[in-house]
Amino acid sequence: MKVGVLALQGAFIEHEKTLSRIGVESVELRQERDLHAGYQGIILCGGESTVQGKLLRELHMYDGLKGQIAEGMPVFGTCAGLILLAKELCGGENAHLSLMDIAAKRNAYGRQLGSFACEAEFSGLGKIQEVFIRAPYIEKFGEGVEILSVVDGKAVAARQKNMLVTAFHPELTESTAVHEYFINEFVL
Ligand code: GLN
């Protein structure tokens, strides 16, 4: 099994390391032709969603990537990856891939509390460590969306069809639980 990790900008290496710890091969998606590398799932990493969205278009990867996910390719978006998948961004910014029925609020915790870690319940996994870095949260969501984790009354992880998103960074913790959840529940 192979998972494609979007590697245009941001924390993609940490995802590759986590995948390798659970015995899953990864392939970096850096240009259009990488979208034909024969993988069974995709990870959209944290970083800067505006930069990633711009690069996706400039490198002519936008349509191919969106098409694969729209057709059912399993995808796991962390932080900026959540923002890329959201159908709506709060504050009137333009959405990017616009595939998941959520409205994401960017940099939602303000400057002071921009980055923090906590323990929180993740549906089916129990308590896990959640690391937030200038993170978004899910402000609104549609009927088909299942919320998997809530911190301070805000939805920070969710799933809908073939899509899994977390506002936090499981790839920056010791635990491989969320990656295993993605592989077991979505890819296998
Ligand atoms: N603040 C970033 C954005 O808006 C997301 C931060 C992250 O991915 N750690 O894209």
Folded structure, characterized:
- By secondary structure, the chain is α/β, with parallel strands linked by helices.
- It has a single domain (2-187), classed as Class I glutamine amidotransferase (GATase) domain (Rossmann fold, 3-Layer(aba) Sandwich), CATH 3.40.50.880.
- 24% of the residues lie in helices and 35% in strands.
- The protein has helices at 12-21, 49-58, 62-70, 80-85, 177-187, and strands spanning 2-6, 25-29, 41-44, 75-78, 86-89, 100-105, 115-122, 126-133, 137-141, 146-151, 154-160, 163-166.
- The strands form 3 sheets. It has a 7-stranded mixed β-sheet with strand order 2-1-3-4-12-11-10. A 3-stranded mixed β-sheet has the order 5-6-9.
- The longest helix is centred in the C-terminal third of the chain and has 11 residues, at 177-187.
- The protein starts with a strand and ends with a helix.
- The model has no long low-confidence stretch (mean pLDDT 97).
- Glutamine (GLN) binds at residues 46-49, 79-80, 83, 106-107, 133-135.
Topology, pairings included?
Layout lengths: L1 E5 L5 H10 L3 E5 L11 E4 L4 H10 L3 H9 L4 E4 L1 H6 E4 L10 E6 L9 E8 L3 E8 L3 E5 L4 E6 L2 E7 L2 E4 L10 H11 L1
Parallel strand pairs: 1-2, 1-3, 3-4, 4-12, 5-6
Antiparallel strand pairs: 6-9, 7-8, 10-11, 11-12
The structure holds glutamine (GLN).
Short description:
The chain has 188 residues and is an alpha/beta fold. The chain has helices at 12-21, 49-58, 62-70, 80-85, 177-187, and strands spanning 2-6, 25-29, 41-44, 75-78, 86-89, 100-105, 115-122, 126-133, 137-141, 146-151, 154-160, 163-166. Strand 7 and strand 8 (126-133) form a beta hairpin.
